[in-house]
Automatic annotation (TrEMBL):
<feature type="binding site">
    <location>
        <position position="94"/>
    </location>
    <ligand>
        <name>NAD(+)</name>
    </ligand>
</feature>
<keyword id="KW-0520">NAD</keyword>
<dbReference type="GO" id="GO:0004318">
    <property type="term" value="F:enoyl-[acyl-carrier-protein] reductase (NADH) activity"/>
</dbReference>
<keyword id="KW-0275">Fatty acid biosynthesis</keyword>
<keyword id="KW-0276">Fatty acid metabolism</keyword>
<feature type="binding site">
    <location>
        <begin position="20"/>
        <end position="21"/>
    </location>
    <ligand>
        <name>NAD(+)</name>
    </ligand>
</feature>
<keyword id="KW-0443">Lipid metabolism</keyword>
<keyword id="KW-0560">Oxidoreductase</keyword>
<dbReference type="InterPro" id="IPR014358">
    <property type="entry name" value="Enoyl-ACP_Rdtase_NADH"/>
</dbReference>
<dbReference type="Pfam" id="PF13561">
    <property type="entry name" value="adh_short_C2"/>
</dbReference>
<feature type="binding site">
    <location>
        <begin position="193"/>
        <end position="197"/>
    </location>
    <ligand>
        <name>NAD(+)</name>
    </ligand>
</feature>
<feature type="binding site">
    <location>
        <position position="164"/>
    </location>
    <ligand>
        <name>NAD(+)</name>
    </ligand>
</feature>
<dbReference type="InterPro" id="IPR002347">
    <property type="entry name" value="SDR_fam"/>
</dbReference>
<keyword id="KW-0444">Lipid biosynthesis</keyword>
<dbReference type="InterPro" id="IPR036291">
    <property type="entry name" value="NAD(P)-bd_dom_sf"/>
</dbReference>
<feature type="binding site">
    <location>
        <begin position="65"/>
        <end position="66"/>
    </location>
    <ligand>
        <name>NAD(+)</name>
    </ligand>
</feature>
<feature type="binding site">
    <location>
        <position position="14"/>
    </location>
    <ligand>
        <name>NAD(+)</name>
    </ligand>
</feature>
Amino acid sequence: MAGIMKGKRGLIMGVANNRSIAWGIAKACHDQGAELAFTYQGEALEKRVRPLAAEVGGHVVGHCDVTDGATIDAVFAETEKVFGGKLDFLLHAIAFSDKDELTGRYVDTTEGNFTRSMLISCYSFTAIAQRAEKLMTDGGSLLTLTYYGAEKWMPHYNVMGVAKAALEASVRYMAADLGEKNIRVNAISAGPIKTLAASGIGDFRYILKWNEYNSPLRRNVTIDEVGDSGMYFLSDLSRGVTGEIHHVDAGYHVVGMKNPHAPDI
Ligand code: NAD
């Protein structure tokens, strides 16, 4: 099947480099004919994002730091311009916590990092949805990224687990709010993948090995696999689906106990 997303225009927020999950999803949408626009966070990442956007013939609509509402408004104004006023889909692949608090105990989280992590990793999806709604005049699809640490305790995930739980709840609330406009809201719960953001999580190599040995598929997932599932959610293939948290994690979320045949880590 090719051309599933022909004529669809989408904004991709959260590419840092070619290892980003957002890049995997962007490539899959491009392969199916979508026209893409990209934001970047700061000058250092601009240097990474511009060549990637060029690779898929995409637009670059500017710097966006979700802690600064003016930059969100600016990239939406530019998106409106380059897409002629209409947006069909949006990917939010943005999260942040102070690295020092992604190790040790959750209970030691500071108020400052808690509010900042919630703002960047949870509220930003709502802030972006408010702008996207205005451009999705013909319906649309919003997708965000979450992790199993929202559902169960994970070592070192700490405040991010709490922020992801709130993000997943916001998916359900926004799905209900925006459904009458045929705007769908979903999340992919991805298994662990070595990215820039993941490198901040304590013992991440251990988490990767644990998932590899104990998931039903006995391996980790790739950004291309998350990309294909992301394309499904952002396209009309998933037109009857909203409010969903969909696991792309080699099946790890169904496991209740360590695989007794797994090697030691
Ligand atoms: P990444 O480092 O490639 O992407 C994270 C992005 O967040 C970057 O592009 C960064 O610029 C952006 N960001 C952070 N703070 C921001 C701010 N204030 N304003 C605007 N952008 C900001 O890492 P990734 O792993 O691809 O992360 C994408 C999403 O996937 C995140 O929500 C992450 O929590 C989620 N996720 C990752 C994994 C994993 O193991 N890598 C697993 C499940 C979910």
